[in-house]
Structure formats: structure tokens, C-alpha cells
Amino acid sequence: MTTAINRYGHVAVLAGGKSNEREISLQGGEAVCTALDERGIQATLMDISESLPKRESIDRAFIMVHGQGGEDGKIQGYLETVGLPYTGSGVQASSICMNKYLTKLIWKDLGLCTPEHILASDCHSIDPDSITYPVIVKPTGEGSSIGMSRVECGKTLEPSINQALQYSSTALIERWVDGDELTVSILGDQSLPVICVKTPRQFYDFDAKYRSNKTEYIFPDYDDCDLAYIQSMALKAFQATGATGWGRVDLIRDHDGTLWLLEINTVPGMTRHSLVPKAAEKAGINFAALCEKILETSL
Q1: Together in a domain, 102 and 231
Q2: Are 221 and 161 in contact (CB under 8 A)?
Q3: DSSP code, position 142
Q4: Are 100 and 227 part of one and the same domain?
Q5: What is the mean pLDDT of the chain?
Q6: Within this chain, do residues 141 and 201 fall inside the same structural domain, yes or no?
Q7: 88, 63 in Cβ contact below 8 A?
Q8: Same domain flag for 274 and 127
Q9: What is the CATH number of the domain that holds 38?
């Protein structure tokens, strides 16, 4: 225990905040705090909507704040200003990955496959008849599939854009891709086992992620070469944005076997439903060990 405390010092597990993912963040923060304690690491859960860590009492931060204020570079900027090391990606990479449009621009520039898309600042700037349906409309800067909807025809495009704009200043209209919904967790420079998400809902939305007991998490029986390629592409996509430490890359494998990159989560969930702990367990890393490995990214 003394060794762990000497190595990491007093860790603030930052959670909560004011985003739409507040409750999920607090659940994950509590789980991480408990796990670090099991590893003999002094950890305190801190709701950033109530207080922020100070250099005088805290030695490093484990960021578990999701969405706006947590994954967009703001809390990272604060921690750098006060001189506290922290887990995960830095200010710039966090800001890029939170913005789905900027992320896709980087991927496109590198020749990585991502579905065609249009950026909308209001519902009047897009001609519904110019769109090939179906599409999925997303807030550009929001997480956990909040504000997302599938659009089958021009008649429902406007309300879907307006819904997305409730959560972000711009909306992303993206070509719908049918296929296997895949996710690859990143830990350091390693891609963890690929998970295929199966849901009876239209897509892997907020309810499917955090509320439904019908969501299935499968380790697909693709060929070893295919699995290695998926892991390699996910890691390349992650590193292309400057993201570091840990995170998750979401993608679709269409019926022809083509991989389409969707987005990056730089502070993924750590609840009982969450994908990173499932992938880590498959790789032989239990939850407490996973939390310490993530904490190591702050050293």
C-alpha cells in the first residue's frame, strides 16, 4: 500500500459536472474510486460542479467527467494551469475528439474511411431533397448518443436537426451504414479485443448503453487477420487525432467487410454496462487493474 501511495500520491477522481452525462459520470467515478482503493491507492471522488482539485491537497487527477466540460479539453486545461497531472488525452486532442466533424476531417485527410457527412448550423441551411436517405443526425459535440436520431426521409430531417442543435451549436448529418456496430478500446498503445454491440433498438443509443438489459456484447468470431486489422485501424484512428492514454473508437463493419470510422471517446464509461471494462476483462485485466493501468497514463 505504501508503494502505491508513494507512486501516485493522493488521486482525485473527477466526476459529475453539468453535462447531460452527469449521472453516468458519477457512477463511473464511484466505481473507479473503489477500485483504486482496492489497489492500495489513496483516491477521493470529487464532483467538479461543487469543487475543483487544488495542487496543495491533490497529486494527480483521474478524469471520469463525460461530455461537455470533461471531454472537450476544458478540465484538462484547468489541470494543466494548476500543474496537476491527469489521465487520458491532452487539451488539443480532447477538443478535437469531442468535435465529431473535426475528427472526421482528420481521418478523411489521412485516407481513413468514415461515412459521408454534412455539417448543419440550422435546419434551413440544408435542402432535404439533396440528401440520400437514410441518414443519422448527431450533435457535433455531444457524447453517449444523446440527441441522435435516424432519419428515413426529408419530412423528418428538420425536427431531427433541431433536436441535435439542442445539445450542440452544429449538427452532423451522416450517411447511415448498415452492418456490425463495433468498438475497440485503447489502453496505452494497445488495442483491446474487439466488441460487437447488438441491440434491438435502431442503434446503440443512450438507453441501449445504460438502461437496457437486452443489449448484447459479443466478441465476434471474425478471422484473426480481420480482428487484427480492425484493432490496427482503431489504434491508427485514435493516434491520428493526438489522443493518448486510453479511450474507445467506434466503427461499423458493413456487409462487404469495409470498416467505417464513426467517433472517438476520450473518457469512456466505466459502469457495469461499459465497454472498456468488458474488453479489458477479455484481455485478462480485471477492473481494479484496469483502473490502475489508466492511472499510470498520468505518470
Answers
A1: yes
A2: no
A3: -
A4: yes
A5: 93
A6: no
A7: yes
A8: no
A9: 3.40.50.20
The three three-digit cell numbers of residue 78, written as one number: 484547468
CA distance 174 to 283: 33
Q: How many separate domains does the chain show? A: 3
**Pairwise CA distance, residues 192 & 179, whole Å:** 21
Grid cell, residue 122, equals 440550422
**Do 56 and 35 fall into the same domain?**
yes
Distance CA 25, CA 125 (A): 35
Cα angle for residues 288, 239, 232 (degrees, 5° grid): 80
Class of residue 199 by CB neighbours under 10 A (exposed 0-12, middle 13-18, buried 19+): middle
pLDDT digits (tens, 9 = 90+) for 178-214: 999 999 999 999 999 999 999 876 666 566 555 667 8
Burial class (CB in 10 A: 0-12, 13-18, 19+), 73: buried
As a whole number of Å, the CA-based R_g of the chain is 19
Model confidence pLDDT, tens digit, residues 233-256: 999 999 999 999 999 999 999 999
Residues with a catalytic annotation lie at: 21, 144, 210, 248, 250, 263, 265, 269
Range of the domain at 75: 2-87
Q: How do beta strands 149-151 and 135-139 pair?
A: antiparallel
Q: Coil, strand, or helix at residue 253?
A: strand
CATH of the domain at 258: 3.30.470.20
What global pTM score does this model have?
0.93
What pLDDT score was predicted for residue 37?
Answer: 96
Q: What letter represents residue 5's amino acid?
A: I
